[in-house]
Amino acid sequence: MKYINIQDDIMNFKLNEDVIVTIGNFDGLHRMHRLIFHKVQNIAGNSKLKKVLITFDKKISDKKDSFAGRILSPTEFKKRLEKNFEFDYVIELEISKKLIETGVDNFLKWLSNNLNVKKIVIGEDFSFGHKAEGKVNDLKKHFGKSNVYVETRNGDISSSLVKKALANGELRKVNFMLVEPIVFVFNDENKLIFPETAVKSGTYSFHDLNRLRTFDLDENRYANNLGDNRIIEVLKIK
What we know:
The strands form 2 sheets. The protein has a 6-stranded parallel beta sheet with strand order 1-4-3-2-5-6, with helices on both faces. It has a 6-stranded antiparallel beta sheet with strand order 8-7-12-9-10-11. It contains 7 helices and 12 strands. Helix 6 runs antiparallel to helix 7 (171-177). The longest helix has 15 residues, at 31-45. The chain has helices at residues 31-45, 75-83, 97-100, 104-114, 136-143, 159-167, 171-177, and strands at 2-6, 19-23, 50-56, 89-93, 117-123, 148-151, 183-186, 192-194, 202-208, 211-217, 223-224, 231-237. It has 2 domains: 2-151, Rossmann fold (3-Layer(aba) Sandwich); 181-237, no CATH class.
């Protein structure tokens, strides 16, 4: 897998191979994301298309989503999980004013002319371009209906629902939705830095060298009883 970070104008970047692509924030990789990734793999397996995942360094704030803009997983963990799905390229676009203002037509041209996209797999609620004006039908008109594969959303699984469950301390629900257990990352002062979204205070459990241990997280996101642990797969909350 080749990881590519684009900080400037996306129009300056090109691929010279025909590709199948999926696009999304993919924050806190959950079961619906996995369905999309498997669909990409299955379609690419019957062709010579390279598999490309396009993601973003953060989510653009959305007034309808009180959790938007606060991420679940740092880039390093997203890259590790995405690698497990055998993409040929993972392209991370850094959110900038220029990217946000990219119009629907220009984004479509970038996909077809610069990335040589031949097929695309997305969720049914996918939107793109300035003010999210681009929809699934725009992709179908541009690439042809037979080249756009749409996965129907499972109403019980989404990144927003993961964040809501985490804020409510519903760890069993969180870990059911995610591909892997939720990871907490702490700094040297034992302050929780990831997930950035709201996390309920309380006593959490985790495995440390095959031994079940607990730590307490206070309302200011500081923990005790961590020992030397800074990256923890959290199992449940008491």
